Amino acid sequence: MTNSAVNQAPNAVVMIRPVKFGYNEQTAASNAFQKKDGIDQKDIIQLKALKEFDDFVAKLRDLKIDVIVVEDTPEPHKPDSIFPNNWFSMHNDGTVILYPMQAANRRLERRNDLVEQLNKKHQFLVKEVWDLSSHEQQDQYLEGTGSIVFDYINKIAYANISPRTHPILLKKVADRLGYKLISFKAHDDQGRDIYHTNVVMCVGDRFAVICAECIPGVEDRDKVLDTLEETGHELVIIDYEQMVQFAGNMLQLTNALGDKFLIISGAAHAALRQDQLTTLMRYAKIVPVSISTIEKYGGGSVRCMLAGVHLPRI
What we know:
The chain is an alpha/beta fold. It has a single domain (12-308), classed as L-arginine/glycine Amidinotransferase, Chain A (5-stranded Propeller). The chain has 10 helices and 15 strands. It has helices at 42-62, 112-120, 144-147, 167-177, 218-230, 240-244, 266-271, 274-281, 292-298, 302-305, and strands at residues 12-17, 66-71, 88-90, 95-98, 128-131, 148-151, 156-160, 180-184, 201-203, 207-210, 234-237, 251-254, 260-265, 285-289, 307-308. The strands form 5 sheets. The chain has a 3-stranded mixed β-sheet. Helix 4 (167-177) links the parallel strand 7 and strand 8 (180-184). The longest helix has 21 residues, at 42-62. The two termini are 26 Å apart. The model has no long low-confidence stretch (mean pLDDT 94).
C-alpha cells in the first residue's frame, strides 16, 4: 500500500505575498474563525500581516526549506490571496488541479501565470492542468487542500462535507487521482459546519492530529480514526478549544537535507499540551510561527498559507 517514492512532507511550498490582506466579508458567513473587531484599520492590518508573512518566509528559508514567494497583484483586490492552498493543488504525477471557490472574490486568486512559473522558472513538471472552476456556475465548490487533507503515501483523501466541500466534486477528484475517499461531517461546539477539513486535522508521514470531538457521528468518527491508525499514524487528539487556536492547521515539511519540520502557529503551539508536543517531536522538529493578525482577520493559519509542491522536478 505504501509508495516510498511519494513524500507526505513536501520540500517546496508556494506562498503568496499579500498586497491588501484583510477581513473578507464574503467568506465570513461560513468561516467562524474570522474576527471582525478593528477591521477598519486596513493599512495597519496589511502592514502587520506583511511583517508576519515576511518573518514566516525567512524562518522557513533559514531551515533550508524551498519557499517560492509569488507577489500578489494590486488589482483586483483579493483579501485572502495569502491562502493559496485553496485554489490549487499539485500532485506527484504532474497534475495541477484548479478548484471552484465559494466566495466570488476568492475566484480572482486563481493564476495560470503562477502555474507556468512553477514549470518554466522553477523546473517542476506540470503534465496537466485540470480546471474545475466551471462548477462555480452550479454552486458546487471544492477548496483545494483546505477541503481535502491528502494522505499522499497511502492515497487516501479525507474530507469534511461543508458548504465549501461538495460531495460530487470530492468523489470526482478522488476517483481521478485514484484515492480512497474518507468523507465525514464536522461541526464546531455550536453545531455549525466547520468550513475546511484542514482546521480539523493534519496528516503527517507517521502521525496525525485530529479534533475527534468535532465529528459528531460515531460511525464517521470511527471510520476516520481507524483508517488513520491502520495506515500507521500515531494519533494526537485535540479538543475544540485547541482546534479554535488552529492546533489542527499545521503542515509537515522536509528541507534540502531531508530533515523533517512541523510548521505550526504560535497560538496553536501554546494551545497544545506538553504530552501532545512530545509525541509530535518524535516525528519532526516543531517550528512555531507568529501570525496572529493573519489568523484573526483571515480565519486561517499556517497550513492555509502553504501550498505544498508535490510535483516532480524536471
